[in-house]
Amino acid sequence: MSQILNLKLEEFYPQPLERVWQALTDPAAISDWLMPCDFQPIVGHKFTIRGNATENWRGFTHCEILTLVPPTLMEWSWESADIEEPTRLSFALQSFEGGTKLSLNHTGTTTRDDIASLSQGWPRKLRQLNDQFINLRNE
Fold first, then answer.
1. In three state form, how does the secondary structure of the chain look?
2. How far is the C-alpha of 87 from the C-alpha of 104, rounded, in Å?
3. Is 60 exceeded by the pLDDT of residue 136?
4. Beta bridge partners of residue 37, listed in sequence order
5. Is the full-model pTM beyond 0.85?
6. Predicted confidence band at 138 (pLDDT cuts at 50, 70, 90)?
7. Do residues 23 and 129 lie in contact, with contact meaning Cβ atoms separated by under 8 Å?
8. CB 16 within 8 A of CB 71
9. Separation between Cα atoms, residue 121 and residue 21, nearest integer Å
10. Are strands 46-50 and 2-13 parallel, antiparallel or unpaired?
């Protein structure tokens, strides 16, 4: 049975907006903090995020870039295996003194298992994004 996904997360990164934008749109960076993929920052580009399959995930997700407004907004469709219509994922950036606020919204209709997985996964991935900045600073 389908349920409404309305996941809204905010993270503050002590990095300039352009650096956070680069981490969100550079294919190598995305592979580091999210998962390996064939991402290209072009509206209409379809790409696949790949990882290890689990009990609740088939090991890949098909996505498409719907909106790209550098350096502040990017939206993707996110195709789950268990639903007909993809959900929608947005990354919005806002510059603040001392860093950048990232607002992640993942919305749509999906399954209870998918909602649970995304609700656990996205906070972890946003922490990995922060860890990537720390690693870059230490190189």
1. CEEEEEEEEEEEECCCHHHHHHHHHCHHHHHHHCCCECCCCCCCCEEEEECCCECCECCEEEEEEEEEECCCEEEEEEECCCCCCCEEEEEEEEEECCEEEEEEEEEEEEEHHHHHHHHHHHHHHHHHHHHHHHHHHHC
2. 13
3. no
4. 49
5. yes
6. very low
7. yes
8. no
9. 20
10. unpaired
